[in-house]
Amino acid sequence: MPLIYGMGVTAVVTYAILMVESRGFRPVELIIGSLVGIIGLCYLIEIFIAPVDWAAAAVHSVVPEIPDAEALLISVGIIGATVMPHAVYLHSGLTQARTPGRDEHERHLLVRISNHEVVIALAIAGLVNMAMVMMASGAFHAGHPDVAEIGTAYHTLAPLLGIGAAGIFLLSLIASGISSSVVGTMAGQMIMQGFVGFRIPIWLRRAITMLPAFVVVAYGVNTTQALVVSQVVLSIALPLPMIALLMFTGRADIMGKFVNSRTTRVAAVIATVLVLVLNAFLIVQTVGISIPGLH
Fold first, then answer.
1. Is residue 258 one of the residues assigned to a domain?
2. Residues in contact with 154: Cβ distance below 8 Å, sequence separation at least 6, in sequence order
């Protein structure tokens, strides 16, 4: 199937899932949760099929290493794929629309549940990203370092690890594509309505949100490269909502009793600075300025 037709199928499926939103937030959450569960299960199976160097994986789970500029690009891309700026707005909007807190006790309960959900969701996203990197390294690094495209990876997996591994990889891609399309479209329609200041029909907001992806594919851009660049752009855009969130949640006149504690504020500042430093390295590297130790 040509990619542009696959985009059309994805758009139809995405819109069909979003129509379930009219029945409340829970059905959509269950659908997205199921898709993420499928992705996680697929890569859990893949890392046991692929010949993973578990000793190296254990060491570098806690000791990061960025040997060159390409590794830095991928690292920043993973941050952009895990802590997505639009997801910050989306989760806030979904939490706000769930159940209005009628008193301090209910608001406290909603904030606590929301915090738990965010930690669990980002932990799962981080683990899935780690499993993807481990699977790709174990399957391709030793004998197939030239594999850099998603399609090539799929066709290489079949003779390398068997048709089962290729089928699992295909299933994970379908689930990933649908879930990310739904989440991205929901975020787009919510952010657009929140910022424009006037009412836009929801079908038009969804169409506008989907349009850029069709433009990229229609122009024949290398899709794998576009995917990586999009994640880097997300990471570069991330400081704005992070800094705004840090400022607002640290103000007692806005948050009241829910204002950040000193420990939370320090941890948030460290995380924000880390992302800013990584983004600065990436921008410097992109404009052609060499960084000591990165070639």
1. no
2. 166, 169, 170, 173
Residuewise pLDDT in 10s, the chain (295 residues) = 888 888 888 889 988 888 887 787 778 888 888 888 888 888 888 777 777 788 888 888 888 887 777 777 777 767 766 677 777 777 777 777 666 777 878 888 888 888 888 788 778 877 887 887 787 777 776 666 666 666 666 666 666 677 777 788 888 888 888 888 888 888 888 887 777 777 778 888 888 888 888 888 888 888 777 877 777 777 777 788 888 888 998 898 988 888 888 998 999 899 888 878 877 777 777 667 776 666 5
Supply the Cα-derived Rg of the chain in whole angstroms. Answer: 20
Instruction: List the beta bridge partners of residue 25.
Output: none
Domain with 32, as residue range(s), is 3-64+86-221
**How many domains does the chain contain in total?**
1
Residue 153 lies in a domain: yes
Within the chain, where are the H helices? 3-19, 25-49, 54-60, 69-82, 85-98, 104-136, 150-161, 163-196, 202-218, 223-237, 239-249, 252-255, 262-286
**Dihedral sign, Cα of residue 66, residue 71, residue 76, residue 77:** negative
Which phi-psi region, left, alpha or beta, contains residue 52 (left: φ > 0; alpha: ψ -120 to 50)?
A: beta
Contacts of 189 (CB under 8 A, 6+ apart): 202, 205, 206, 209
Q: Is residue 112 part of a domain?
A: yes
Q: Is 257 exposed, middle or buried (0-12, 13-18, 19+ CB in 10 A)?
A: exposed
